């Protein structure tokens, strides 16, 4: 090295840069597929909600009826049937309403007109109450209405999808 | 015979200073309960380590029988608990030790906090200690699910819902932990097992090494 040039990269610097670069690349190549594996559940497309037959529309009354139905469930490699329950009835506007019985307070199971709670859904765990439309009654523990199942009517048969939250009140 | 073997190795690798460094390290008087009984508060860190060693050893042996599969997990635990020689004792050690280690680490943290032992120059060691605390909690949380009984299942359900209540990223955190946005099932169990047995212990060992190297470097904080 007879003459000094400006911006000359020294041998040591060059080796530092290349080794760091190559090392970083190799490290990234090793780690990135592993990280990909770990975050796979976030990348999975959300399962489209299948609708399940629950009951005939003609059987739906103004009085809420408790109906159970099974939904096929896919948990990775494990397939099973999950049992779900809905309170199904016609509202005063003659619309069909299928409510999830899972209390929005802490997840206990609500019951229709249990105890002496006429025309109400009642949760025995912490005295949570919901009116006929499944809307939580003020000054009781629940903070949101009962979730309602998406539904579809085909040829006089009622099919239920996923229970959707109905917002806090 | 043993002495000869030791000398043979020591001659080549000079291992005496390694253990001498620990064995000859003097415990300061204000830390020694033999001098002042109230110094027992300084034992909690060491007790945390002691129970951690029990947890690691008993856990290693439990995995000889345990399977992280929802069909067989409970049966494998029941089998090792009721049929395997001393299985009940080893699982008991792991079960009760899990609680004891949390109590000890908590007492140790309280001691360091109320003595102000975290102050300069020991701030970094405090930070590492807090990370250790989180790792311990993670170990407790993930280990709780593994027996796959009702208590385990619903405790995890609740824990995951707490994680879900984090603003904005809560749902992603839950999915990442449970392996599924809604189900606590097969994928949750394998994930929790992997985290409990590989990921968190690896973090724990690294942090413990840092914790101990730092305390030896800086020495224990002086008397109040």
Automatic annotation (TrEMBL), chain A:
Keyword terms of this UniProt record = 2Fe-2S, Disulfide bond, Iron, Iron-sulfur, Membrane, Metal-binding, Oxidoreductase, Transmembrane, Transmembrane helix
Highest rank taxon of the organism? Bacteria
> Could you tell me which SUPFAM superfamilies the record lists for this protein?
ISP domain (SSF50022)
Keyword Ubl conjugation among UniProt keywords: no
Domain (Rieske) spans 88-160
Which Pfam families has this protein been placed in?
Rieske
Q: What is this protein called?
A: Menaquinol-cytochrome c reductase iron-sulfur subunit
- Identify the species of origin: Alkalibacillus salilacus
Automatic annotation (TrEMBL), chain B:
Which SUPFAM superfamilies does the record cross-reference, listed alphabetically?
Transmembrane di-heme cytochromes
Signal peptide annotation:
none
Which superkingdom does the taxonomy of this entry point to?
Bacteria
Q: Which UniProt keywords apply?
A: Membrane, Transmembrane, Transmembrane helix
Question: Per the UniProt entry, what species is this protein from, by scientific name?
Answer: Alkalibacillus salilacus
- Indicate what this protein is called per its UniProt record: Menaquinol-cytochrome c reductase cytochrome b subunit
Cytochrome b/b6 N-terminal region profile domain: residues covered: 5-224
**TM annotation in the entry:** 39-67, 96-114, 126-146, 193-215
Q: Does the UniProt entry include the keyword Transmembrane helix?
A: yes
| Record keyword Membrane present | yes
